[in-house]
Amino acid sequence: MKILFDYKIFYQQEYGGISNYFFNLGKQLLNLHVDIRFNCLMYRTRYLANLPENNFSGYNVSFVPGKLNPLIEKINKRYFEETYSKSNFSIIHETYYSKHTFGNVKKVLTVYDMINELYPQNNNNSKEISNIKNESINRCDHIICISESCKNDLIRLFKVDSSKITVTHLASDIRVENVLLKNKKYRDFILYVGSRRGYKNFSSLIEVFSKSNYLKKNFKIAIYGGEKFSNEDVNILKKFNFSKDNIWIVNSKKYSLKDIYSNVSLLVYPSLYEGFGLPLVEAMSCGCPIVCSDVGSLGEVGGAGLKYFDINDNYHMSYVIENILKSNETQEQLIDYGYNRSKKFSWKKCALETLNTYKNLIS
Fold first, then answer.
1. In 3-state terms, what secondary structure has residue 236?
2. C-alpha span between 207 and 37 (Å, rounded)
3. What is the C-alpha to C-alpha distance for residues 156 and 159, in angstroms, rounded to an integer?
4. Which residues pair with 142 in a beta bridge?
5. Closest CA to 205 of 288, 298, 293, 304
6. For helices 278-285 and 328-342, what crossing angle results, to 10°?
7. Nearest-5° Cα angle at 243, 224 to 324
8. Which end of the chain is more exposed for a tag (fewer CB within 10 A), N or C?
9. What secondary structure does DSSP assign to 159-221, as a single string?
10. Residue 251, SS3 per DSSP
11. Is the dihedral of CA 13, 355, 302, 185 positive or negative?
12. Cα separation of 56 and 79, whole Å?
């Protein structure tokens, strides 16, 4: 069996969840002695340079201006076509949606979420992306979804036959063992991770925080990742009369994500929808208590032992957050639960399930 990963996501992302997923999947497949090849002549992602030369070769062009994207797309596509035409690959695993058709070889596609279909107002190109996604799904022989929730949405919205879909959960590649509540360095911080736009619902956290005397008196908000702090963020703070002095925009070059997870009091995840919700697994793996919305895949990932709030009720969000922060016992229980729950998710398990999908497809 020979597996070829296409180039799409590795040129689109320098860092990102999807390229990280394929990097970790690829590493584990190599450990299982699967013959795989990453194909991207010109790439942006930082992950590929860590792969063995026998399984990947190319040039990092993260410094190249974006106006050259159409040209590089053509070069990557041509190189990819030459690669698969010269070797007898069993499967092409497409890393992102496209209009390309690559020969008669079996094709697998991973679908990550249905955000463009459920929240089209968040992206001016939602309709175009959705159409390309649908075209990719119809073209491919099998679909991998990263959660049961994502699978159900895909079936409902695109009418895909359930027999064509396999669910394979993601995992975390960061972990901090034996975190103790009493040793946390940033216990006066609540953590928010990732993008603050659209369905991520950052504004609800600011509103809840601004209206809680207890939270304002005792805590600040740490923000890790996402976009650069912009006028849009400033306007959200102004709307709720919330001072930027109460926000710590974490320098990711100085502080690692696992260091932040393992030292803050709580991760708050107020998203309106998730195809998976990787920060939940990351936080649980690093001894960070979690409170999150009760929508999409979050209950599937977090399980029965997490604390959830009604996404449509900010009073309930405030109530749940405050109750956790006022109880050391609850925080310690959530830390213990998180460690146990996170063991259900591993890249090795992801790779074994993906390999099984490959075998079933070509048998």
1. helix
2. 48
3. 6
4. 108
5. 293
6. 110
7. 60
8. C
9. ---GGGEEE-----S----S--GGG-SEEEEEEEES--SGGG-HHHHHHHHHT-HHHHHH-EE
10. coil
11. negative
12. 13
Instruction: Please give the structure tokens belonging to residue 128.
Output: 């175009």
Quick one: pLDDT at residue 22? 95
49-79: buried (b, 16+ CB within 10 Å) or exposed (e) per residue?
A: eebeeebbebeebeeeeeeeeeebbebbbee
- Give the separation between CA 201 and CA 312, rounded to whole angstroms: 11
DSSP 5: E
Q: Residue 79: which residues within 8 A CB-CB, separation 6 or more?
A: 7, 39, 41
> In 3D, which of 268, 280, 265 has the Cα closest to residue 326?
265
What DSSP string describes 256-280? Answer: -HHHHHTTEEEEEE--S--SS-HHH
* Whole-structure pTM value: 0.93
The two three-digit tokens of residue 8, written as one number: 């799409």
| 186: its two tokens | 């940033």
Sheet holding 247-249, edge to edge: 247-249, 220-224, 186-193, 264-269, 290-293, 307-309
Tokens 């999807």, located at residue? 18
Per the document, the length of the chain is: 363
Residue 33 is given by DSSP the state T
pLDDT at 123: 80
In terms of DSSP bridges, do strands 91-94 and 2-5 run parallel, antiparallel, or are they unpaired? Answer: parallel
- Structure tokens, 155: 């079936």
The position carrying tokens 């070769």 is: 57
Q: Is the separation of the CB atoms in 358 and 91 below 8 Å?
A: yes
Local confidence pLDDT in tens for the 363 residues of the chain = 999 999 999 999 888 889 999 999 999 999 999 999 999 999 999 888 888 888 988 999 988 888 899 999 999 999 999 988 888 899 999 999 998 887 789 999 999 999 999 998 878 888 999 999 999 999 999 999 999 999 999 999 999 999 999 999 999 999 999 999 999 999 999 999 999 999 999 999 999 999 999 999 999 999 999 999 999 999 999 999 999 999 999 999 999 999 999 999 999 999 999 999 999 999 999 999 999 999 989 999 999 999 999 999 999 999 999 999 999 999 999 999 999 999 999 999 999 999 999 999 998
**Residue written as token pair 């990097």:** 23
